[in-house]
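Researcher: I'd like a structural prediction for the single chain below. Treat it as a standalone chain; there are no partners to consider.
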Amino acid sequence: MAVLKIRNHHLPAISGLLDVLELAGSASRARTKLHAALLVHLEALGVSEVELARQYATLDETGEIALDEAGGFALKDPGQAVEFATEHQALMNETITVPSLYEEQYAILAKALADYPGTFSGSDATAYDLLCDALEEASADGD
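Model: Treating it as a single chain, here is the predicted structure.
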């Protein structure tokens, strides 16, 4: 069974790209199944980020993270900034795995992306490259 591997920090860009790709037939189905799976991982990542932040952030009277006007937060101990940044970086560098839901799913999606008639630029181009690499690796490992 093919297994796709993606680092947490790439999840938002790849999920965003999958959301806007216009594909048909089995390629669309493969994209939709992968996108749904990545959204589950994105939600779990958000929960993990909040849990990590809660350990380091100043909390309000209800025990929630006290947010500033910009939506950020202050550390309860500014001396732990490096420790928090290191922990957050480790979380974002973790690799998630997504098993294919049906045979040839990743090979079908990889081919559709290779043959995609549209163009990509900026962050979409980077997400496209990362997704293609991950799909190629998953298809090769699944053989």
